Amino acid sequence: MSEIAPRPTLEAVAARAGVSRATVSRVVNGGDGVREPLVERVRRAVEELGYVPNQAARSLVTRRHDAIAVVVAEPETRVFADPFFALQLRGISKELTAHDNQLVLLLTEGRDDHARVGRYLAGGHVDGALVFSLHLDDPLPGLIQRAGIPTVFGGRPGWRDGTGEEVVYVDSDNRGGARDAVRHLVGLGRSRVAHITGALDQTSAVDRLEGFRDVMGDVDARYVVEGDFTPAGGERAMRELLDRCPDVDAVFAANDLTASGALRVLREHGRRVPDDVAVIGFDDMLPIAEQTDPPLTTIRQDIEEMGRLMARLLLKGPGDAMSGVVLPTTLVRRASA
Prior knowledge:
Elements: H1 10-17, H2 21-28, H3 36-49, H4 55-62, E1 67-72, H5 76-79, H6 83-98, E2 102-107, H7 111-122, E3 128-132, H8 140-147, E4 151-154, E5 169-172, H9 174-187, E6 193-197, H10 203-216, E7 224-226, H11 231-244, E8 250-253, H12 256-268, E9 278-283, H13 286-289, E10 297-300, H14 303-316, E11 324-327, E12 330-332
Parallel strand pairs: 1-2, 1-3, 3-4, 4-5, 5-11, 6-7, 6-8, 8-9, 9-10
Antiparallel strand pairs: 10-12
């Protein structure tokens, strides 16, 4: 049986490079004050010997773990069923990987999970947190604030942090995108336009409802039904709309999943789309929007880029971060409207 070669040490790298152990340590840990020729000698010795820094020891010295918590304020059944979360996590993962950081995924099922997440973040296991899909009564912002770690939120915050500091977040232009959606429906000659909202304890749903009202004005309350961003919620809300307003001729759904449920109910009731009822969604999640019957006209937001930008802002650090970034949306026309 062959023996396993001993792991190269910091001292071995120092001997190979002809420098002190302290110089190697500064170079390996990203410290300043080492002349460039010495830096190159150390890097060459590291490569030749195959030296890998001891992350446990390194974290004790630098207080960095090269790990970022990604906190999704939803149960796992929702996270793994909704492509929105997969796209956002993919963007986050790509950016963290590019900077040699590990993603630690934390989900919340209920109040006990909130406390667990708060304890974990306060325990010094990660260098920062990316948090999204918060609800307005969610205790997580307070728990994260008490943990005292750098944080970037996905979505416009619906709370005040109580410190007077700006909350750093990344969002899409939900209100502007909703206005574009409803203007498109009105431009098609539709006058009885309804809205199936998202969960109204989330700011994205509130902003999309406000965008709908910006165009439609003081619309009859019967034409607004609350959904929950799921296909089942879209089905339930569409049935309620048809009972309330059988003359409805257009529907703006708060997201593509909601729209997919609404389309199924319209088909069950013999309503032709878009001839009888035009339908438009929000997100442009291609596995959904291109495969509905008919393919879905929708408002596109770059979900993966939102995730990338959240991670980028966090890794840049508080000195470079801004209070909030709002990404533009665009109308994507397909057959449903």
